[in-house]
Amino acid sequence: MESLTSPFVIYWGMHIISLVLSIVITVIYWSVLYDAAESSLNATNVLTHACNSIFMFIDLLIVAHPLRLLHMFLPALFGIIFAIFSVIYQTCGGKNRRGKPYIYHVIDWREPLNATLVVLGVLLLTCCIYLILFTIYKLRTLLYRRINNASYYFPTTTPHTGGAEKSANGTLPKTVKGTGIQHSPSGISMVFGNFNTPTGYHNEAFTSSTEKLERY
């Protein structure tokens, strides 16, 4: 795999952060922050704090972006950065749109203990939601394999050297494992691909089981 600074990997990380935090935002807003007396239930509010997580969840179900368990640190790190920003913002005299000296009342750093506990609670919630989404991702992948009678691996940590030869009748060997679209600069597959499409698309980033054993 190419350098972790490649745009493709940056996009992958940002997608993970957006997926998890959109749901975190929805849960926290409607359970803690929303106040019917101060906020109106209009289209903007619903689109910002509800539809975002719905759209991202649909994206998780229909687009084969891979999730890795260790990548849980990405949304958690983003949450820590936001907490640090909220401290700096409030210390420098920043106010929210209602003129209050904090961004959200639940993280008012004039009460550091309460604010710290809230931040820790949000981080725990973030990790729990990531685990749920990771489980859904694994179930989605398993369902795809069962329906298509295929086995896939995503080359996010191992390199590949190219394709394999087709048999005489034009089909791929049963031992070949495919990974989807292979034209990304980092070699990370983001969608499931079809080797024998009507348009003749050739998926190059697949490796037979024998070749994998010989290389690694």
List keywords for this structure.
5 helices, 216 residues, disordered C terminus, single chain, two-stranded antiparallel sheet
Short description:
By secondary structure, this protein is mostly helical. The chain contains five helices and two strands, in the order H-H-H-H-E-E-H. Helix 1 packs across helix 2.
Could you walk me through the main structural features you see in this protein, from its secondary elements to its overall organization?
The structure is a single chain. This protein is mainly alpha-helical. The protein folds into 2 domains: 142 residues, no CATH class; 67 residues, no CATH class. It has 5 helices and 2 strands. It has a two-stranded antiparallel ribbon with strand order 1-2. α1 packs across α4 and α3 packs antiparallel against α4. The longest helix has 37 residues. The C terminus is likely disordered.
Helix content: 40-55%
The largest sheet has its strands arranged as 1-2
Which H/E pattern describes the elements? HHHHEEH
Report the span from N to C terminus. Answer: 15 Å
Assess the beta-strand content as a share of residues: under 5%
- State the domain count: 2
Oligomer type: single chain
Mean pLDDT across every amino acid position: 75
